[in-house]
Amino acid sequence: MKEEQRIKNLFPPERAVDAVLDTDAYNEIDDQFALSLFCLCPERINVKGLCAAPFANARSGGDPAVGMEKSFDEIKKLLGIMKKDAPVFRGSKRFLPDENTPVKSDAADFLARLCLEYSPDQPLYVVAIGAITDVASAILLEPAFRENCVVVWLGGNAHDPVFRGADEFNMRQDIAAARVVFSCGVPVVQLPCLGVVDSFYTTKFELEHFLKGKNPLCDYLVSETVSYCGMDDEKVRSKVIWDVTAVAWLLNDGERFMKQRVVGAPIPQNDLSYSFPYPSHDMAYVYRIRRDRLYGFLFEKLTSL
Fold this sequence. Notes:
Elements: H1 3-8, E1 17-23, H2 30-39, E2 45-52, H3 64-82, E3 88-90, H4 106-114, E4 124-128, H5 133-141, H6 145-148, E5 149-154, H7 169-173, H8 175-183, E6 188-191, E7 201-202, H9 204-211, H10 216-229, E8 239-240, H11 244-249, E9 258-264, E10 267-268, E11 274-275, E12 282-289, H12 291-303
Parallel strand pairs: 1-2, 1-4, 2-3, 4-5, 5-6, 6-12
Antiparallel strand pairs: 7-8, 9-12, 10-11
Helix pairs in contact: 4-5, 5-8, 9-10
């Protein structure tokens, strides 16, 4: 890929694009909002597939394979609520053992095959909102992925050392996969969690005001969020709906929802810090979320179903 094209691919498309969402949908509640937005923008996002990503926490009993299966089921459940249809693929049952060994899965195989249908000037957009194992595996399986795709990832924290950059749930689960993605040369857009996307929060009262009673999807999202966050009491409480921002990047022409800059790509380290090699290839780094604009757009899309 020519460097001019690589830089061009780091900026949001201004047209409808083909895209895949890789999501640990059962991990918490933000993936459900992101997946819904992904499926409710057909004028801009042509959904080529949905992939279930692994995760390991209390909701999966610490087992990434269980997390992936629960995410697969949650994707299917949400499609049913929305009365939408899309190909759904099971992802990796474990994280990368090292930076040279892919984890075979239906999702990784699907991404490796699909990328061959695209080119640097007409890329496939892969939005990842969980551990990036499936994407890294596809890169290791098919080198053409690096040329023909753009990876948009909600992972890691802000580059300021105060945020301990790689010590973030999605990234620290599979540092080997993160190192593959950040070092391989594929165009990467990073939406950092702490220090950037943590401004994208909402409350029970806002969700109920704008969404409750509008349709079954809205009611599901409200009830699940209130239950997950324990918002039934009268305490002051808010919730960051992290993953919506990664999907919204595809719709960010004119910087209407977020601002970004082009920076040298860091490399996540096993001690959960970043190193900044020089020279390094460029990546896009989102540094500000326009919170009110994006929530207004999100609520409009969710209530339009």
